[in-house]
Amino acid sequence: MKSCITALGIAVLFAMPCRAADCITILKHKDTNPVPVAWLASGMIQNGICGTLVSTPTVSSGYKDKLHKRSQRDTLIVIPDNLYPSHESTDIIYWFHGLTGFNKRTFKVRLMPQFAWLTKSQQFPAILVVTEMPWSKFTRTQWKRQGRVFTKPDELLKYTREVEGIVSRVAMLRNNFRFDRIIVGHSAGGSAIASAAKHGGLCKTKPIGIVFSDSTYGRWFDVTWRSCVSEYSKQHPVRIMVLGQSFGRPWKCYTRWAKRHSRACRNIEAYRLKLPWTHAKIGDNAIPFFYGRFNSRKYENIYEK
């Protein structure tokens, strides 16, 4: 296995791989935070997900963070075992978590059941990327740091290239492999989308989907739209989805925007979700929403077998 890692060109980046279960391989940077790795690996085991879990700091997203308990933020990547080098393309889902996220619930309760539904039940070999935000569980002053990510020119674009370079080496993908990018921001993650649209090159990443998971607080959607998405959506096919809890603040903020943009809003898939939908349940089902599980708009519990 050691020679295999060297051949992939990541011997310096990752420590020795280990097996969390019979069908899970963990590739972990020596400086990465082991706690979320354990949470994610446990969630993979509980949901029967087979594949490779990569944990690493990323230069273009929080490599140095003086307000982080470990002085750096990590990126966790899950590559399912049904993604093969012979494939020409697949979806890559970038998940921007909410306030004090990147916690045990984020991985074990929220993301792994959704990812299992997609990769196992639907047999779709998508890649999941969980980006640790400045407002994660492991950082300080979380409330004040919402939106303070991807603030440098084209920083998100550089981040996607960095992450996808790692994925390509680990999965031994062909040089012309196409990553179809889906950007999902839950709750405070909406501020990351807005910041990336304004500064970080969101539209230069050519996303095929942008999902606001109960995350259109304040003017985050306004900023996203006017910064680049308005023009981008005229020239590229992109699915823009807004999920909002009935009369919650994000939904009210979105409807304010929609009233002022009556023509443009026709191109936005906006779901006003009543009880039993809650803020948490929306986040727990955002990925199946994007892939058409809830076309009826009725609540279905993806945890039910």
As laid out across the biggest beta sheet, the strand order is 1-2-3-4-6-5-7-8-9-10
Instruction: Estimate the helix proportion, in percent.
Output: 25-40%
Tell me the span between the first and last alpha carbons.
36 Å
How many separate domains make up the residues?
Answer: 1
Radius of gyration: 18 Å
Highest-level CATH class = Alpha Beta
Order of helices and strands: HEEHEEEHEHEHEHEHEH
Alpha-beta classification = alpha/beta
CATH architecture: 3-Layer(aba) Sandwich
CATH fold assignment:
Rossmann fold
Mean pLDDT: 90
Number of E strands: 10
Q: What is the 3D form?
A: globular
The number of helical runs is 8
Biggest sheet character: 10 strands, mixed
Unreliable segments of 5+ consecutive residues:
1-12
CATH homology superfamily name = Alpha/Beta hydrolase fold, catalytic domain
Content of β-strand: 15-25%
Topology of helices and strands:
Elements: H1 2-7, E1 18-21, E2 24-28, H2 34-46, E3 51-57, E4 74-80, E5 89-96, H3 104-121, E6 127-131, H4 155-171, E7 178-186, H5 189-200, E8 209-213, H6 220-235, E9 239-245, H7 249-260, E10 268-273, H8 279-290
Parallel strand pairs: 2-3, 5-6, 5-7, 7-8, 8-9, 9-10
Antiparallel strand pairs: 1-2, 3-4, 4-6
Helix pairs in contact: 2-3, 3-8, 5-6
Description of the structure:
- By secondary structure, the chain is α/β, with parallel strands linked by helices.
- It has a single domain, classed as 3-Layer(aba) Sandwich (Rossmann fold), CATH 3.40.50.
- It is 35% helix and 21% strand.
- It is built from 8 helices and 10 strands.
- Strands 1-2-3-4-6-5-7-8-9-10 form a 10-stranded mixed sheet, sandwiched between helices.
- α2 packs parallel to α3, α3 runs parallel beside α8 and α5 packs across α6.
- The chain is globular and about 55 Å long.
- The relative contact order is 0.11.
- The N terminus is likely disordered.
